[in-house]
Amino acid sequence: MTWPVVARAYIESFERARTAHGHRRRVAFRAKTLAKRTVDLPEVDLAHVRHMTDDTGILQHATFSVPRRADGYCLDDNARALLLTTMLEDAAVEPARSVRALASRYLAFVAHAFNEQTGRFRNFMTYSREWVDEEPSEDCHGRALWALGSVVGRSSDRAMRGLARQLWRAGLPAAKTLSSPRAWAYVLLGIDEYQRAFEGESEVDAMMAHLKERLLSAFHASSTSTWPWFEASLTYCNARLPHALIVAGARMQDEAAVATGLRALEWLCSVQTVDGVFAPSGPTDSGSAVRSAPCSISSRWKWRPPSPRASTRTGSRATAFGSPGLNSNFSGSSGKTSSRPRSSIPSPAVAATGFMRTD
Fold it and tell me: Rounded distance, CA 281 to CA 293, Å?
């Protein structure tokens, strides 16, 4: 027998085997794409939250994962942390004693931040526990009331609920003087949380009605058929505006407010979603998406429909991301110049896309 004959015999044997067992052929391996996989949320991990928290509260910033003491603390972040730990306790996804220990520190910070003489909350504290003298932030006042309201409405700790309610009621009157739509939204969310435990308080109901109407008025003053929004630009934490209007409308059985909030939210989702992916800055005039950095950066930048002059403007009022002067002081959402250091923004977008500095 020659080797060619042996080879043909092998081929014939393989062909017979393939024909006889064809129904048992293995399907080629194919990895499931993200779109076809079941969405499994990861377990809650508070390791970094604990790492950033000391006896005073949660520190404001970190260098990579290392707490940056030079920046101290702020009420904004401690209010957020208080809201987080209260929600975690209520959802029972973490041991109650563990999250309550963290919540107690954040609540203590919020309590210390309240200025009884002004009825407002201070925001910035140095690492040496000294308050930085500056005009109170409207956003932080609203966030404090939101977090305190959640403690009142959700916490199982009687002492924490008592202190939170005392602070919440002391800080509520100042909400009437706030001019920021986001501050109104945070207060409305705080009222809704508070009313989980205490309903029918006339002054609280009146404040909710007042802020709901202000938010509705802002929407009607700014919105058009193609721009159904509360302001002339998309800035930061945008979804909180329709969120608050929907919640307040539902609480007060105001169907028009709920419908307006849903309309604004649907539009926001449409302009901030590209191919099923969240693109927080919204579209350009051509309809293409421009991605922005996280909320800590987008809160200092505003997206607005570009004007014909946008592509020719230069200087601090239309500075491209990554251009000279970016790390110099510039206005935040409050419109006031801050002397605190800013992080660099490694993005190549240009002013003509619609990102425009507002200082």
Answer: 9
